[in-house]
Here is the input.
Amino acid sequence: MKKNNLTPKKEEYFVHPSSYIDENVSVGRGTKIWHFCHIMKGARLGKNCNLGQNVFIAEGVKIGNNVKIQNNVSVYMGVTVEDDCFLGPSAVFTNILNPRSRYPQKDKFIKTLVKKGTTIGANATIICGITLGKHSFIGAGCVVTKDVPDYGLVIGNPGHLAGWMCACGKKLNKGSSDTICCLGCGRKIKIK
Here is the structure.
C-alpha cells in the first residue's frame, strides 16, 4: 500500500495485505478493506466503512460514512454513494448506456447517485444516470432503469415500484394517506 498525505495513519483503518490502494486516496477512520480489493486514485471512502472481498472502487468515486459494500461489488467512475448505504454481494453499477470496446467513451460517463440509507440487494444491476432515493430498497436481482423515490421498494426485471420501506428496514403498509406510520419503529414517513 502506498502512503499519501490524504489518508489517515495506517493504524486508523484496516487494509488486508492482498489489497491495493492507489495514491491520492482518502480512507476514513475505522474503515476496513478486506481481501483482494483495489481502490483507485482520487477515491474517497468515509469513516467506518466495510469493504468485503474483491471490491473495486474506481477513480474519483465518493463513498460516505458507514457504508457496507459486500463481496464482488464494483463501484465505477461517476457513482456517488452517500452515508449508511448497503451494497449487497455482486451488485453491479454501469456508467455508460451504450458501451463499445472499439469506441472508448470515458468522457461520456453518466452520474449515478445512491442516497443516504439505501439498500441494494445481491446481484442487482443499477443502470447509470439515475438516483436511488433516501432509504430506498432495491430487491435482489433487480434491474433498476429509472429513478427510485425516497423509501421506495423496487423489485423485478425491469425494476418496478412494489411498495415502501422504512429506514429501519420494515416494509410499510400504505393506506389512503400520504403519511405512513411504521409498525416496527413508529417513524412517520411522508410518501411523495
Notes: The chain has no helices and 25 strands. The longest strand covers residues 160-165. Residues 1-5 have pLDDT under 50 and may be disordered.
